[in-house]
Design brief:
By secondary structure, the protein is of the alpha/beta class. It has three domains: 269 residues, 4-Layer Sandwich (Glutamine Phosphoribosylpyrophosphate, subunit 1, domain 1), CATH 3.60.20; 185 residues, Glucose-6-phosphate isomerase like protein, domain 1 (Rossmann fold, 3-Layer(aba) Sandwich), CATH 3.40.50.10490; 146 residues, 3-Layer(aba) Sandwich (Rossmann fold), CATH 3.40.50.10490. It contains 19 helices and 25 strands. An eight-stranded antiparallel β-sheet has the order 3-2-4-1-10-9-11-14, with helices on one face. A six-stranded antiparallel β-sheet has the order 5-6-7-8-12-13, covered by helices on one side. It binds fructose -6-phosphate. Fructose -6-phosphate binds next to helix 9 and helix 17.
Amino acid sequence: MLTALRSQAMCGIVGYAGARSALEVVLNGLRRLEYRGYDSAGVAIVDGGVLQIEKRAGKLSNLEKAIAENGFDTSAGTGIGHTRWATHGAPTDRNAHPHVSVDGRVAVIHNGIIENFAKLRLELEERGVEFSSDTDTECVAHLLALELTTHTSAQDSTTLPEGALAAAMRRVCQRLEGAFTLLAVHADAPGVVVGARRNSPLVVGCGDGEYFLASDVAAFIEHTREAIELGQDQVVEISAAGVTITDFFGTPATGNSFHVAWDVSAAEKGGYDYFMLKEIAEQPQAVADTLRGRLTETGEIMLDEVRLSDQDLRDVDKVFIVACGTAYHAGLVAKYAIEHWTRIPCEVELASEFRYRDPVLDRSTLVVAISQSGETMDTLMAVRHAKEQKARVLAICNTNGSSIPRESDAVLYTHAGPEIAVASTKAFLTQLVACYLVGLHLAQVRGIKYADEVAAVVEQLQQMPAAVEAVLGTMEPVRELARSLAGSPSVLFIGRHVGYPVALEGALKLKELAYMHAEGFAAGELKHGPIALIDKGTPVFVVVPSPRGRGVLHDKVISNIQEVRARGARVIAIAEEGDAAVEPFADHVIRVPRTPTLLSPLVATVPLQVFACEVAATRGHDVDQPRNLAKSVTVE
Ligand code: F6R
């Protein structure tokens, strides 16, 4: 039976051609890409007419150990490497990449899914090819080898004719369906790495006499900050001499050149035990960077790329926000701000549900897609569905040139810098900032807010980096509390209004990092069922709204605290400085600075991130790479 493991759907890939040791460059690159998946890893190096290959199930450290033990000894300058996140089937040595053709000459790595693999595999088997893995990727290695045998006449030479591997890749790609980034090397093509992409990311790093290929610039940022983003359906060949890009039919193409604004230190832990701690600490800077330069001299909010006219925005009569996970929680907060400031109805949808319920969309609908990676397949599919229905799409994204912003009509980039820890922290805060800016922009274009009103909110936003910094300075009691609660069977989080998404985010962080039962609820919903979960000593985090805002909201939350307290809960209140009303009812009060209610998630979320991180560390978990997860979810 033909059951291939379509298991390469979300992976990190890196390739190198130059004068350095490709093994070193590739392993360093994989280290930075491990956030994309860490179920298995492998490398292939072209060395003196042979392919040296090593691959192992498990984290990169397993591969490094195998390389050290097996005396894998090469300083050759051409190679590829892969780190994998399995979607189907067990991640084993056999299914790890690279995959090699029967003649042992071609090695291939892959990110994506080849949808017609079953047909291709059958065809290859009929031609006598024996498969040595269950993956769809292996087809590509065999197809490349066959193409080269059919089309390359220079059999007397031990090196492939120039351009032959790229030409074979183009012919193979014409036959592939699905989403893929592919890299290939050939034993008889020393100095050459060939890549291809469709619906999956691939960037070229351009050094001095050396070139890199990777799913993400983080893989080569220590060597060069000059990069080229490949377009859809393109093939690239790199060597020490340069880079050649064509489409799948050989027509020369250029790709999109850009300079990477951040440097290698941004992708290092910088003295912190975990990337997550570093990224939590970077939040004031990330918020400030996302706000920087957004107001024009005339007080208008600027987006980054706008392929929409002001009239298009004036015509908007409905906003849908689509996103997943933490980004979805940012969307839930955005709904309050957008409806309040623009008076346009706004709905927030899980991207994975959006297109299946056939939402009512037309030209006057604005769909806002929020995604840190810009590659989340559920969100990308929601964007495509929205575009098919003629809706306008605006992306909020942290990754320059990724698929979601590329396919949208307008983009506002968050400037969080690279987020390496799997659990999203600084990306979330910057997504909130971007959502506020989008709300203000819409309100301004539609004439609902004047420039001075917008400037007043921007001024409040500009106070937020200092407010977040202040929260970060008072986190020791939260860490202590986390250590004392690390053994709790369950933790609940409740909030109202914008405090509700904060509660959801607090619960998500704890689930994904500490593997504990955690739930977030709208505080008013508790009495409709979930209050039965509360037992003696159950920790309940309560996100308390400002007493200076709508008083009714604050009073209601105080009542909710009393309800859970009466049932034995241990109440941990996150409350504004000076809010004395919570003290008699809370076992612990975590203070956050005074902020306008709509902006309060920017400070209230931070203690919950710190709490989850500390609980996870206390329980001995890998904080940066929680089990079963990957950073960039490029499967539906
Ligand atoms: C949770 C987390 C995920 C992501 C979600 C969307 O900490 O990181 O829930 O928020 O997978 O990812 P992006 O924003 O890349 O679309």
